[in-house]
Model the fold of this input.
Amino acid sequence: MDKVSILLLICLFFVLFEGGLGAQDPSVTKVVNITNDLGSRINLLVHCNFHGKFHDENLGLQTLSFHHSFSHSFKSDDVTPKTRFFCFFWWKNGNDVFDLYNPQRDDPRFAAKYSWSIRRKGAYSYDEKNHRWDLLYTWKK
Done:
């Protein structure tokens, strides 16, 4: 083998195993944040569950007053297409349940933070790429 062939093999090795096709992304921490934006004097009760690749987690009941938030974080290596992060919501004159994290829906829209604003009309998520709040879920009547 000549020197050029050896050099090409070395470069191919680095491309495949040191940051190219053979490399794996490091685990990223993902954060789901829920904020009560229903209005003053309206408390929001939230009970969330996370079902990941490696573990399931019952996050318990949280009471959020107006403009207060609740967050939960998890590692991206705990995510599969079947991963679910869903919450039950109760407030004055309403209640509902929906998925706050769905990999197929949310990963193309978000980097690592999934922000939700719970409002009277429904659940709004913050689109990081377009810098806007989008109504993604309308409350059932």
Summary: The two ends are 74 Å apart (CA to CA). The CA atoms of residues 94 and 141 lie 8 Å apart. The helical segments are 3-17, 103-106. Residues 26-138 form a domain with the Immunoglobulin-like fold (CATH 2.60.40).
